Automatic annotation (TrEMBL):
This is SDR family oxidoreductase. Belongs to the short-chain dehydrogenases/reductases (SDR) family. SUPFAM superfamilies: NAD(P)-binding Rossmann-fold domains. The keyword Oxidoreductase applies. The keyword Nucleotide-binding does not apply. One of its GO terms (molecular function) is oxidoreductase activity. InterPro entries: NAD(P)-bd_dom_sf, SDR_fam. Keywords: Oxidoreductase.
Amino acid sequence: MQRLHQKIALITGAARGIGAAIAKAFVDQGATVIVTDIDHQLGSAFAASLGARARYLPLDVRDETAWRSVMAEVLQSYGVLHVLVNNAGITGFERGVVAHDPENASLQDWRAVLATNLDGVFLGCKYAIQTMRKASQSAKLRGSIINISSRSGLVGIPAAAAYAASKAAVRNHTKSVALYCAEQGLAIRCNSIHPAAILTPMWEPMLGQGDDRAARMHDLVRECPMQRFGLPEEVAALAVLLASDEAAYMNGTELNIDGGMLAGSVLRPVPKS
Ligand code: NDP
């Protein structure tokens, strides 16, 4: 039996990277998947490559009106939503290296990261709860909201302060959502996943295409106990677990997937000489 048989799942930022790997794993496990993103060309082509149980809908997670219309479309097409993966996220370095430290980051750059990483998750949780509540009135629904946070939500990151703050807030909001749904008597679980160093296009601005690319990659995982980047498919495996009914008693919890980085204290701050 496939682990997500007949589940309807929506994934944000799923045109590539971790979101795309989750979409593929969900389809492989029997779910019907709504791939959403702001890269419409890539998103539609990717959804088409997954076959008949996947479709693409445009969704900028910062846009509340877009959330309303996507959820209305989901209810109209399927009558139910079982799983939401709030995956879309940005580092703030997409257009090159800008100051993201606590002293020099601009308010505009800070807000841009929080708008996607935190407002986007807030809106996703809000509209998933409303949609799942509607569906649960007619059917016995077991919902799962999965928020993709980060190792950066558990430790400070001086050079990426907005990213770290946003991911820490996602970790905490996950717990508020889990408790709220339980208080409301809704069978909706909410958990967070905390990846670190997963090799996706997100790293490209930091790796570059120069001769030093291999050295940079090596450098970035030097202090990872497993000495390698993780794979998007390895994160997707955790998302399958949390989406499935096997995880029926997992609620408000956090799962780290980081090659062992958080197990020790090797990632200490190093003063610049
Ligand atoms: P990618 O950059 O590879 O993919 C993210 C996708 O989200 C892109 O398709 C991007 O579109 C899309 N996106 C960006 N902004 C929005 C938005 N406002 N609304 C909808 N979609 C949007 O990232 P990853 O796959 O690496 O990361 C996925 C999640 O995992 C993120 O939340 C990230 O913070 C988290 N994470 C990743 C880690 C890693 O090492 N890779 C480690 C820890 C956490 P476009 O390309 O057009 O911008």
